[in-house]
């Protein structure tokens, strides 16, 4: 089962726009609101697997970095909105 999940993850990540991005862009440590985060988000806007990436980050509770065009502040705001809708 773990292998199956790993293979599925690899399948979508093969199409990730960030795979070919400038290695100087810091995807994990980019601070929300920073120029580095803006650079990451610009690449995400063109990514064909953006939705899958965003869903992965949201469902795994990813705390750091830019995923699916969202930084940690964006993800936290979305989680808060989901709680408000559910309440
Ligand atoms: S959405 Fe952004 S972080 Fe996610 S795979 Fe695409 S380019 Fe990478």
From TrEMBL:
Designated name of the protein: Transcriptional regulator WhiB
Cofactor requirement: [4Fe-4S] cluster
Post-translational modification: Upon Fe-S cluster removal intramolecular disulfide bonds are formed.
Cited PROSITE patterns: 4FE4S_WBL
Subcellular location as annotated: Cytoplasm
Key word Iron-sulfur present: yes
Binding site for [4Fe-4S] cluster: 18, 44, 47, 53
Its job: Acts as a transcriptional regulator. Probably redox-responsive. The apo- but not holo-form probably binds DNA.
């Amino acid at each position: 089962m773990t292998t199956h999940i790993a293979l599925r993850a690899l399948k979508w990540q093969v199409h990730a726009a960030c795979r070919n991005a400038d290695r100087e862009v810091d995807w994990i440590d980019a601070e929300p609101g920073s120029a580095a985060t803006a650079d990451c988000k610009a690449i995400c806007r063109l990514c064909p697997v953006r939705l899958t990436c965003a869903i992965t980050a949201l469902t795994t509770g990813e705390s750091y970095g830019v995923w699916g065009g969202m930084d940690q502040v964006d993800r936290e705001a979305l989680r808060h909105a989901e709680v408000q809708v559910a309440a």
